[in-house]
Amino acid sequence: MKQRGRGTLEESEADIEGCKLRAVKWFDNKPVSLASSFSSAYPTKLIQRCDRKTKQDVTVVWPETVSTYNEFMGGVDLLDDLIAYYRIRMRSKKYHLRLFFHFVDVAVINSWLLYRRDCKANSYNKNKIMNLITFKSDS
Questions:
Q1: How many Å apart are CA 86 and CA 112, to the nearest integer?
Q2: How confident is the prediction for the chain on average, in pLDDT?
Q3: CA 35 to CA 41: how far, in whole Å?
Q4: DSSP tag of 89
Q5: Which of 10, 26, 53, 112 has its Cβ near the most Cβ atoms within 10 Å?
Q6: How do the domains of the chain map onto residue ranges?
């Protein structure tokens, strides 16, 4: 892909128990790999990217999967950031315990986000809405 240049893409599709899963590999500055059961690489868009060598804008093909990921990635980044603040520390060599406590963290963060959304929808005073550490310790 590096030899073919920026904007090169490859897509593979698999049908797993009636669900179509697509793997897309797109070459920008580096290869980007994504798997999706939701979107495909097509239709593609043309976008302007800055070329480091020539210091000029070049037109590059942009797959729909990358566009969709960039549009909705904020929720995943927010969840990762919030989990990092007050993570349940579990030092164990057994991976299933670490997975369990990670999913407990995910559940608590998601419930706190829902709690905050409901408080804002019901016009609660900002001083009465619990912050994350208080919510997590009370749960």
A1: 13
A2: 88
A3: 10
A4: P
A5: 26
A6: 9-72, 74-138
